[in-house]
Structure formats: structure tokens, C-alpha cells
Amino acid sequence: MDTSSRVIGFPVSRIDGPLKVTGTAPYAAEHEAPDGLLHGFVTVATIASGRIAEIDLTEAETFPGVVKIYTHQNRPRTAWWDKAWKDEVALPGHPLRPLENDRILFDGQPVALVIGTSFEAARDAASLIRMTYHEDEPHTDLRFEQDQSYVPKEKRSGISPPPKPRGDADRAFSQSPYQISADYFQEGEHHNPMELFASTVIYGEDGSLTIHDKTQGSQNVQSYIASVFELKPDKVRVLNKFVGGAFGSGLRPKHQVFLSVMAALDLKRSVKLELSRREMFYLTWRPATVQTVSMAADDEGHLTAIMHHAVQATSLYEDYQEVVVNWSGLAYRCDNVKLTYELTELNVSTPGDMRAPGAATGVFALESVIDELSYEVGIDPLDMRIRNFVHIDQNMDKQLTSKALHACYREGAERFGWASRSPAPRSMRDGRDLVGWGMATGVWEASLMQSTAKVKLERNGHVTVSAAASDIGTGTYTILAQVGADSFGIGAEQVTVAIGDSSLPKSPVEGGSWTAASSGSAVQVAATTVRQTLLKHARDLPNSPLKDASVEQTAIRDGRLVLAVNDQAGVAIADIMDAAGVDFIEELGEVGPDQAQMKTFISYTHSAAFVEVKVDEELGVIRVTRVVSAIAAGRILNPKTARSQILGGVVMGIGMALHEEGMFDHRTGRIMNHNLAEYHVPAHADIHDIEVIFVEEHDDKASPLGVKGLGEIGIVGVAAAVANAIYHATGTRFRHLPITIDKLYYAQEAAE
Amino acid sequence: MKPFEYLRPSDVSEAVAALAANPEAQVLAGGTNLVDLMKYDVTHPGAVIDINRLPLKEIEQLEDGTFRIGALVSNSIAAYHAGIAGELPLLSSAILAGASPQLRNAATCGGNLLQRTRCYYFYDASTPCNKREPGSGCGAVGGVNRIHAILGASQHCIATHPSDMCVALAALDTVVDVAGPTGDRQIPFLDFHRLPGDHPERDNTLQQGEIVTAIRVSGGHFKRHHSYLKLRDRLSYAFALVSVAAALDIGEDGTILDIRVALGGVAHKPWRDPLAETECAGQPANRDTFQALATRLLAGARGQGDNDFKIEMARRAIVRALEQAAAGTPQIQSHKAIF
Predict the structure, then answer these.
(1) Which of A412, A476, A509, B130 could form a disulfide with A630 if both were Cys (CB 3.0 to 4.6 A apart)?
(2) CA-based angle B118:B123:B124, to the nearest 5?
(3) pLDDT in tens, B56-94
(4) Which SS3 state, helix, strand or coil, does residue A719 take?
(5) pTM score, whole prediction
(6) Which domains does chain A carry?
(7) What is the DSSP track for A15-59?
(8) What percent of chain A has pLDDT over 90?
(9) Residues of A known to be catalytic
(10) pLDDT tens readout for residues A246-268
(11) Are the Cβ atoms of A680 and B338 closer than 8 angstroms?
């Protein structure tokens, strides 16, 4: 096949970009219904633990424009068994059933739904609901409750529990000349993409539902709704054509889709329900985590022992789990490793995936410790990592499909100017500021998921690719267009991409950095099949110049199927279809993990992040003035969208390092900074130069396209690199995220 | 949000009459704070008096050099006004340290004086708050209080005033022009805001029916030596943990002729101690003097737990801001490096 691609690997601008920048891309809450819409507003619990004592709806129900108010006392019947409530990526435990009963398990739990003729009517009536509670003592402080931790009984699907210990880590640790053992804590982080969770449920005359939902998986929501409400699957269609950021928050169906469908079915009307910014703090969040890491090295800096223990917060009703500690057993060569992972139940909503779940957390501790150990041993932090390079996954005892991490270290260090770093802490200055240079390694898994896609070639040469994939701002539209275009010798803008619709070919939820590899490869397989069918028809033509050609020997140029080596020899697509008596050729492509290969190989993306900070020590002000992020992620389909992914990951990593934290009042178990004025993410002024490097990495095993995925890797290691840079600047190790300005004062006070 | 009556008077007397007639009425200017508070169910005005048609949008320089800034002048217009930027650069700088360009475009100078605290508990209508609901208690005492007051707090309220502009106004010579049912009056700026005491629901000394019509500011003798230094949880678009408006008039011999220090983010009102400033007169404009003044300003400071760091932070920020002012190198708000 012609592989002289004109589109893959080029910085094609987003094909959906004009719609987004002109405000014409409709998001979930921006749809209307033919029969008009009713509007919902959710009332949330204002205690974290207890029971609803009394509900007084007198004032609210008579408020003008109120249609109906739902509470646990009048909620319509739904599926009985937990199994029916388990979505595609559900967790061990009992999924939340909104308005199920009077029990309150966490602050912000939905306790009532008001349906009104306008949003304002619903919201105003909601403020008139008088709800009283029997309050129990809440438990929300992980550091206080961690002695209640337990090993999860049932493992979360798709998550590897820690491997069995190898070697004798305790003994090796105690016998090593250099040892570090330290505790790490990070506060919970709360998802705040631009688009809020919202559903517009359009109720059809035949009782069918068309749901515009804020989700990372239209088919996941479709099957969940059909299952929970015991509807025929073909009566439910879910659309998520445009998603205003999600970062993992939209993997599982959220209560707004349940509640809006419940009301639509009950009232036989179309309903819109958009959650508030405040409610983002009671949904999927990156859990608070306590970690202890012990690491030892010999005189040459070779790691002799690693022990990594983590305890994470989960809810009272589900055992959320992440891969936090396993990274410590696979990032570096070490023969004595002990990894353990536990949960603690708190009065919180179930945590969920947030960009590089587990890795962002675990690698922060791992990369902080190895950095600290490098100073103990007395070697450069980068050399320490290079010295402990490993080319296999010792946890799984598997080979890696590729690992161009050396290139990340080399090219990243060169661009950053690492060689001119002065090794001692507090030895670099810029005027009044202390300057610190720190780095960290990042790692994330590269997965290929079972995925399908359709490709359709029309008589006029137009190409349509379709899959129930999602574009959560990542560039899925554009890269699928590129892959489709590549097979037919046309530009990406000439390809129509249909995604974000549960009626399209089966695709997994958009997460785990697997969409480009999975849906992209499925498109490629489907396109190749279309080319084969086209060639078969062409061969059947009388005196066909392509009679003896294989599909690999052909190319499509200017609407003609030609020999790759001689494009004069060929036939117009239109003529081929006319002769075959068809208007179009459409084929389904399917890809999935290669089980045989997976027995011996495993695939990861890697990165090296280099960070410069400037610290005004007297005032405690930290500025991250420079970041270089070098990424090894296989084939890069589109350097422009790829760079954006990494930039976003780095910014989020800076936020994790310095800004983001949910602040609980542990007396009441309630989050107090539930708005974007007080829950801080980086502002423009916090972000300075970020340079992204994609190192060359050829991988013919990770996925058919050679793609590994980029959604997560950009954040992994960034928080550690920032903390390591702050150490290099100030000589103080910060092990509690985020490193807010107050912590610098308290550290100085403690040192005095 | 509750339904409310909406009025749009066209002159000041009409607005005052409407406001005086209804104790539940509130004034709407830029709306950048009031509308949020209404949506969050924090405040429930029975009537909203939209004063945006009132003729209070002028900036004029009076004969004595004082700038008279109409209450409806936007924060942006005031900050970038050539006369103000030239003569009262401390005021420009403080305004530009606050909020975002979009908010500054909408927010008015009168409204800036009247913005409410950012206390988490005040904003969450399901928690106790004596400022929001007198007598309900204070959630912040013993709660999450890293942004709260270290000076002048009471057992009923430890909230802070969130404005940046007001910190500069407190440092300069400022008077607030007010129109009310009994006529016009002028309130010296340091008397405009109040400490919480037993009535934290009252942020200021305006009487029922009174409207801010203008702010008169002078302080041209500080234009060479001033700085507004704001320390916060990120480098922009966050309320101050501690901010300092510092202004100096230094004689040819290097001694202090006049010195002003106002603190933001530390109390229920911009914090100043004029007596302590007076005693600095004649002393050298150096670090020792500044440290002594900082110690004196913070003598009564008391932390609430989470915010204990603010005492030391304020001490250092005062000294740095005064050093910046003395050196003639004020903090630049568009560049977040601190010198």
C-alpha cells in the first residue's frame, strides 16, 4: 500500500476547530426539543453522614412554574439488582442510586430533583425545599482514618493489584548504605472541565429517548440507561458530539443523566438538567492519598530496595481503585520490591479517574524519593535515573514493546540545558530569587482496546469514517479524519467524521489514552478493507491495469485507483463503482488486543519532565518559569493536537503541584471551597514556557497504527519535577501536595 | 435566587428615594458580586435598584489635584486613566492586581468598596454565618480559615475584606461622597469600612438609603515611592492572602517625610495605623525602620489556626513593599516576578 502519507504525522488543525471557536458546536445542554423542554435542578445534601429526617415541600411545590419535585419518597421504580446499575467501567460495590432512600453518605449527595417550566423556576423552587437531617459524625480526614484501611476484597476491572513481592526488600533496605524513607500526602483534586455535567433528554412520541449527554462514552450511557430503566436498547440513543473537556470525569454515567431520564419517562416530556459548578466537587475526584516510600541504593547508586505503600480514600458504597504503587516496581531496575495498596472508607462520593489516575499520584512519591536518594548518594538526579534504567517490566516479567526513555532523557536534558546545572541545593540564583532545576520520569500504560469503526467510500471519492468514539477535546475528530484520509490519498478536510453517537460502531469509553490507538487502528483496518473491495471490483474490469496488483501495490490519487509505482496505470473510482453497480463501498474494521503477544509483551509510554522554578524565599512565592517535557509515545499522528495534549497535562501537573486541593471542614465533612474562585487551578500568569518534544519511537506491537496514546502521560511526573526543583532551589523537601505558599512559611518555621 | 422587584432610576435622588423606601432593596452596579451572591442564595434583595443610568461615570481632577472618581466608573477605566496612572500610580496598580480584565471592565469603583467577603462559610448558605445570618454562629472559627483575618476580628466573625483597590485608597487620602435621604455627606475612607464587632452583618458605615456617588483621592506626593504587593495562592486571579499598599515621601536626606502602609486580606477592613506611621517621620527610609513599623502594625495579630502563617507573611510583605517603594521600583502587576 502507498505509505507516503500526506496527512499522518502532519500538524493538521482541528477539523472541529471553527465550530468551537465560533460557539456553534452544541454541547449537551445546548439542545432543544420539538415539544419544548422542562428544566431540572438538583438539591444536594448539606450533611456528610446521616439520614433525611423530614422534607417540607410546601413552599417549593406551589412555586410558580414547578411541575414536579422528586425525592426518595416518590421516586419512580427502577431496576432492582446492583448488576443492572453497573456501567461499563463500574467499580466493585453498590453503584449510587440517586434518591434511593433517606441515607446520606457524603456531602453534596443529590436529595431532590425539581422539574420546572424554566431553569429559574426549578432553581428558585429548589431553594425553598426545607430538608432536615439526623446527622451522624462524619469521617472525611484520610490522615486520621487511615488506620482503618483494608485491602480491597474485589479488584477493579482493568486495574492490576500490586504484584507479589520480589526479593527481600526489608532486608535489602536495612543492609544498604543509602536509605530514604518518607511519607507523602496529597489532598483530593476535583474535576473542573469547562463543560458542566448536563443532559438534554428528548422524549419521542413512541417513548424513545434521544439523550445529549456530557459523557466520555455514548454507548456506556446508552446501555446504563436501558438497563436501569429496563428499556429496550433500541429505544435509547445517546449523543455526545462535542464534549467540553472531561479528563476522566465523564467515564461513568453521572446522576444528571439518570435523574433527567427518570423525569422524562415519568412526565413523558423532554427534560434538560445541567449540574452546577458547585456539584463538580461532589462527583468523580482524584482521591486524597497517603503514601510511604522506602528506597535504598548501593554506593554506585543502583537501587537495592523499593517499598511503596499507599492508602487512598474511597466512598462507603464503592471500592474505587487506582494503580498507584505498581509504577515503583517497573520504572527502574530493582530486584527487591514490596508494593502494597489499601483503601479507607470515608464519607465522600466515590472517587474516579482523573488524568493518569494512580500514576500521577504514585509517580509523584516515587520520583520524589529517587531524587532525594540521588542527593544522598551524591550523583546527579538524571544520572541516578539513567543508572537504574530497566528495559523490561519486572512486575509482570514481560518485555516492552518499546521504550525510548533514554532519548527523552537525552533530548529533554539538552533542550533544558541540564548539563549546566549546579548540583548543590540553594546554589543557583537569579537576583533575589533562588533558582531550582528538577526533573522526573513519567510512565503510563499504552493500551489497545476492542474497537470497531466503519469506513465508507462514495462514488465521488468522498470518505466517511464512523465510530461511537468521543472527542473530549483531545482531537479525535481530526486524527480519525487523518487516518481515513491517509488511506485514500486525500486531505483530512475531505473526510467526514461521525462520532459521539451510540448508534455508531461499537467503541469503548474515551479514556486511558487508548482512543487514538484503538479507534484510529479500527479506521485503518476498515479503510484497508474498503481498498481491498475496491481493488476486487477494479480487477474485474475488462483489461484492468490493476489485474495483478495487490492492495499494497496500489494507491489512490486524484479519485483514481492506481499502481503506486505508475499512477498512469489506474481506473477512476467512479468507473469502478459503476461497473460493479454500487454507489459506495462500506466496510467495518475491528481491532483488539493481541492475546498471544500480551503473554510476552507489555506497552508503556514514557516521559522525562524538566522544570525550572524561581522561589522568592522571603515571601514564599514560587514560579514555574520553564518546563521541557520529552515524550516517547510511539507514532505521533498529529504533532499539533499531540502537543496540546502534553501542554494540558503539564499545566494540570503544575496545578497538582502547587494549587489544586479540595478543602474539607472535617467537623462537618463538607468541602468548603466548592467554586473556582477558591479552588485554584493555574491561571495564565502561573504558566510560562513549556516546550514539548516527541522523541522518535518506532513500535510495531503497541497498536496496528504504531500509536501509543498521549492523554495521560503529559501529567505524570510533573508534580515531582516541580517539587524536586523546589528542593534544588530551597533545600526543603515538600512531601505534601499542593505546595501552597503557607507551606513554605511553616517549613521555614519548623527549620528554625 | 428569589423573585425581586427591579427598578432603574435615572437620577440620584430617585435612586436614594427608592433605596430608602425599602429596607430589603439593594443597589446593582457592575453586578460582578451581587449577582453571584443572589444565585448562591446568600442574599435575597426584595428590590434591585439598578443605578447604571445614573450620571456617575466621570473622572475629574479638582483644582487641588484631587481626583474625583464617579461611583460608576469601571475599575478598568480608573486604572488606565492617564491622570490617575500618572499621579496616583499606587491606586492604578492595586486595581490591576485584582480580578481579571473582564471583571475589571464590568466592576465599578463604587461597587468595589461594597464587595462582600470571600469567606467560604459566608458563600455557602447551608453553613452558619453571622455576616449572612446574624446570630447563626461563625463556621470559620475552628473551621477552614486559611484566608481569614489576623487583625481586628471578633468572636462573631473572622472574615476579611477582599478588595485590592480599597487597600490603596486606605493608604492614600480618600473621602467617599455619599448621597442619602437626609442629604449629601462625606465619609473619610478609614471610617467607611468597619470591624465586625457584634455586628458582622454590617460591612460599612453607610446608613439606610445612602448611595456612594464618588470617591475623592489624593496623594500625588507618593508617586515616586509606592508599591502594591499582593501575595496569594496563585500568581493572578486570586484574592489576597496578604496585600500591602506602601507609599513613601522621602526627603533629600533620605529620611521619611510621610509614610503610609495599608494591609489587605488581613482584616474586616483595609488595615492601617496612622499613629504608627506618624512616628516614622524623620527616620531613615530603610529596612530597620520598615521592620519596626511592621512589628508595630502586627502587634495585635492573632491567627485562627490555618491562617497563622499570615502573620509572618504580612510582616515580610510590609518590609518588602516598603523596600520596593523606597527604591522607586514598584511591584509590576503584569509581571509576576517580585523584586
Answers:
(1) A412
(2) 145
(3) 999 999 999 999 999 999 999 999 999 999 999 999 999
(4) helix
(5) 0.98
(6) 38-137+193-276 (3.90.1170.50), 147-189+285-344+356-447+600-751 (3.30.365.10), 449-592 (3.30.365.10)
(7) TTHHHHHTT-S--TTS---TT--EEEEEEE-SSSSEEEEEEE-HH
(8) 98
(9) 712
(10) 999 999 999 999 999 999 999 99
(11) no
**In this complex, is the C-beta atom of B231 within 8 Å of any C-beta atom belonging to chain A?**
yes
Residue A90 corresponds to which cell in the numbers above?
463500574
B245: nearest Cα among B192, B323, B169, B151: B169
User: What are the angstrom distances between the C-alpha of B246 and each of A536, B79, B317?
Assistant: 82, 17, 10
**DSSP type of residue B97:** T
Q: What is the least distance, in Å, from the CA of A413 to any CA of chain B?
A: 25
* Whole-number Å distance between alpha carbons of B188 and A451: 71
Average pLDDT score, chain A: 97
How far from A246 is each of A21, A28, B219, CA to CA, in Å?
18, 13, 50
pLDDT given at position A2: 44
- Could you please state the CATH topology (level 3) that the domain comprising B225-327 is classified under: Enolase-like; domain 1 (3.30.390)
User: Would you place residue B336 in the very low, low, confident or very high pLDDT band (cuts 50, 70, 90)?
Assistant: confident
Stretch A365-371: mean pLDDT, rounded?
98
Q: Which are the contacts of A573, defined by CB distance < 8 A and separation ≥ 6? A: A457, A459, A461, A534, A556, A559, A560, A561
* Cβ neighbourhood burial of A459 (10 Å; 0-12, 13-18, 19+): middle
Q: What's the residue count for chain A? A: 752
8 Å CB contact of A127 and B239: no
Q: Hey, which residues does A56 pair with through a beta bridge? A: A130
Task: Please tell me if residue B296 touches chain A, with a CB cutoff of 8 Å.
Answer: no
Asked if A303 and A334 touch (Cβ cutoff 8 Å), the reply is: yes
- Work out whether the CA dihedral B298, B300, B306, B308 comes out positive or negative: positive
Give start-end residues of each CATH 3.30.43.10 domain in chain B. Answer: 5-53
- Give the model confidence (pLDDT) of A140-187 as tens digits: 999 999 999 999 999 999 999 999 999 999 999 999 999 999 999 999
Q: How far is B268 from B138, CA to CA, in rounded Å?
A: 14
Q: Which of B1, B237, B291 has the most A C-beta neighbours within 10 Å, making it the best mutation to test the interface with A?
A: B237
Q: Mean of the pLDDT values across residues A613-637? A: 97
Dig out the grid coordinates for B308 from the structure: 497563622
Closest Cβ opposite residue B236 in set A614, A685, A749: A685
Closest residue in B to A677 (Cα) is: B238
Mean pLDDT confidence for A30-47 = 97
Contact A608, A439 (CB under 8 A): yes
Domain B5-53 has CATH 3.30.43.10: yes
**What average pLDDT does range B273-295 have in this prediction?**
97
- Among the listed residues A200, A423, A176, the one whose alpha carbon sits nearest the alpha carbon of residue A300: A176
- The size of the A-B interface in CB pairs under 8 A is 98
Question: Packing angle between helix A359-377 and helix A718-730, nearest 10 degrees?
Answer: 30
Q: What is d(CA B190, CA B262) in angstroms, rounded to the nearest whole number?
A: 10
The CA-atom distances, in angstroms, between A96 and each of A89, A109, A126, A514 are: 14, 10, 22, 27
pLDDT at B335 over 90: no
How large is the ipTM? 0.97
Of the pLDDT bands very low, low, confident and very high (cuts 50, 70, 90), residue A1 is: very low
Residue spans in chain B of domains classed CATH 3.30.390.50: 225-327
Residue A339, amino acid? L
